[in-house]
Amino acid sequence: MTELSGWGRYPRHPSDVLSPSSPSAVPPFIASHTGLVSRGNGRAYGDAAIGEQVTLVTRRLDRIRAFDPATGRIRVEAGLLLADLLDVMVPKGFFPPVVPGTKFVTIGGMIASDVHGKNHHRDGGFGDHVESLTLALPDGGVAACSLTENGDLFRATIGGMGLTGTILEATLRLRPIETGWMRQQTIVASDLDAALEALRATADSTYSVAWIDCLAKGPSLGRSLIYAAEHATHREVDALRPGAKAFPPSRSGRLSVPLDLPPFALNRRSVAAFNEMYFRAGALKAGYPFLVHWNPYFFPLDGIGDWNRIYGRRGFLQYQCVVPTAHAGPALRSLLDRISHRGFASFLAVLKQMGPGHGDLSFPMEGFTLALDLPVSESVFPLLDELDRIVVEAGGRLYLAKDARQSPATFEAGYSGLPRFRDLRRAIGATGRISSRLSARLGI
Amino acid sequence: MNASRTLLLIGGTSDIGRATALCYAQAGWRVQLAARREEEARRNADDIAVRTGSEVTVHRLDVLETGQFESFIEGLPQLPDTVVCVVGELGDQQRGQTDLAHATQLLRTNFEGPALLLGSFAERFLERGSGTLVGVSSVAGDRGRGSNYLYGAAKAGFTAFLSGLRNRLAPAGLRVITVKPGFVRTQMTAGLKLPPVLTAQAEEVGRAIFAAAETGKSDVIYVRPVWRPVMMIIGSIPERIFKRLRL
Ligand SMILES: Cc1cc2nc3c(=O)[nH]c(=O)nc-3n(C[C@H](O)[C@H](O)[C@H](O)COP(=O)(O)OP(=O)(O)OC[C@H]3O[C@@H](n4cnc5c(N)ncnc54)[C@H](O)[C@@H]3O)c2cc1C
Ligand SMILES: NC(=O)c1ccc[n+]([C@@H]2O[C@H](COP(=O)([O-])OP(=O)(O)OC[C@H]3O[C@@H](n4cnc5c(N)ncnc54)[C@H](OP(=O)(O)O)[C@@H]3O)[C@@H](O)[C@H]2O)c1
């Protein structure tokens, strides 16, 4: 038994851990255990990747099996790290179609959470770019799945949080890029309406995201910096940074947080100071486009190893919701209002626009998604329950990959595909056999 | 110049083997992976080929089937320039104490198979006048210990074989390299508690093998240098004391 937790280090649960060395070793493990779920690199924040009894870690399934430079089609094992894929493929002029805010995730984890990036409004979720996958089923069999073969299973597995079985391999399409640079533009938004407007206005940019200063109140509630970006072309690199290499190496030097910080290190004042500094530094760059390396643009936090430790031993929660466009303005305003009034310190508050979603448990839906970190404390839970009510009322939902505490009622209200997902789980014999702490908590 | 050079890696499913073959392929070598489980070796072959653009082929071989060695060598697309053998099995010492079949398998897998196979390549390399042989042995062969002497004795035999072969091939300008990795985090040691300073990653071993065989001059390498003094101390303990230690 090992004590496992997600990236938020809350909650922690004991579990047996299996670590198969090859896809062929997975089916016998699945057939001979119950209460099992897969785990990639454990970057889900809460309890999604902790088995009720047994956790099957996929990290040793990390081979790239085939790549066709003519089409960008790549076949990989599910435990391959996105960071590894980037190291190999960016110098060849290819980029993953969708990336989350950290590169230390596995391909299997990205499919199981149907990960969204800063381009969801244009390109959909990661699952939209998966052509096919192989899935180890609860009965010890292996199924090939795509839109045309075992289509229901395929759709349910995308965003299915590992609850249909273990993804062994996946085939997807990478996008060609001319350079490893991003052409970024920063827009300053003085309040929430300006931020939503700026996100709508930059919707034709491939990537856009707003960083919100959660502690700004009153008239500046929702004050934000919007980062819009494109993969830079050769010509743009020549113009903006003559002589730069097309594919500069990414710096590997990583800072790391040496010890768990005591709880008082993150208080309202220190975060307010950080936010003020961040906002000014960003605002200085506003207006004109500039080049940044893909690594800091997409993965700014990966530069600080183990940054989850700054929240101390008790861990932290990430709250991420999406609210449909029609109710986005008022709902986001009440959410931010509650958060800023309680003065809960939050380093990260990110606002993104989402395009339409699909899939039973997949998170994205057309609207706006807000994500922020909060240290665990007694008083944070009632606040989040309050936020849940606002989200549910607006017809929104919470992201399972970030969740550690929502109630079954909140969950059921947000996911209309749940009954169908449960039916499919029953049909393939997954109910009760493939289960995580999350699925047990929410009755999936 | 390297474009046409070929590595044969025996033990193509092992973690150390994968890391070693990747180092060679990154340097532009063509790679042949030999393994008894072809399908598993193909995973490594594909992966190395995509990452490096090198040509990687897979060849079936069980080192216990010594009778197949000649036809295996004849069947390779070309006689390799360097052969690295990483085949080994830690096995279960306690079981081997009473189960002769298991004991025999450990002796044959760690000594007989690898030694005879490298010996067969040595004859061909002598005939051609070039070639490098690398055998992955173990510090466990430096001194027999109660907890793993079947494995250790076989590795000691392998170490002695490599030393003798080196002695014989040196005048012809052919190199034989003995690698003693120390502890390595691999599937062989999965679940064992290993002291971090003494424990290398498979990638470290791969780089060390490539450096020793292709750019260095050493005949016997310990991957982490701390192992040299450690083994010197272990080697210098008088037998009358050593025999009473629980090791
Ligand atoms: C700093 C940070 C930033 C993030 N930013 C974003 C973001 O921008 N957008 C976004 O969408 N997400 C984001 N996330 C969440 C993260 O992308 C997801 O949680 C992702 O699933 C983590 O991948 P993992 O390999 O670590 O999976 P884990 O956390 O180990 O597992 C996550 C889920 O996937 C399942 N799973 C894993 N592997 C398999 C498999 N082989 N077969 C079947 N199921 C499997 C698990 O059972 C679990 O339910 C972020 C996380 C962090 C820590
Ligand atoms: N890990 C350590 O701490 C450590 C320390 C010192 C020395 N070593 C040595 O390093 C070498 C590589 O070990 P590793 O750690 O990478 O472990 P490993 O992954 O278990 O490698 C052992 C390899 O030997 C192969 N093999 C076993 N019997 C075989 C047979 N009859 N025919 C063909 N191949 C056979 C295995 O193939 P299958 O996959 O088919 O089983 C596997 O590829 C071994 O010689 C080991 O003794 C390891």
Automatic annotation (TrEMBL), chain A:
Residues 10-177 form the FAD-binding PCMH-type domain. Pfam families: FAD_binding_4. Keywords: FAD, Flavoprotein. GO terms for molecular function: FAD binding; oxidoreductase activity, acting on the CH-OH group of donors, oxygen as acceptor. This is FAD-binding protein. It comes from Microvirga makkahensis.
Automatic annotation (TrEMBL), chain B:
CDD domains: SDR_c (cd05233). Gene3D superfamilies: NAD(P)-binding Rossmann-like Domain. Keywords: Oxidoreductase. InterPro entries: NAD(P)-bd_dom_sf, SDR_fam. GO terms for molecular function: oxidoreductase activity. GO terms for cellular component: membrane. It comes from the Bacteria. Belongs to the short-chain dehydrogenases/reductases (SDR) family. This is SDR family oxidoreductase. It comes from Microvirga makkahensis.
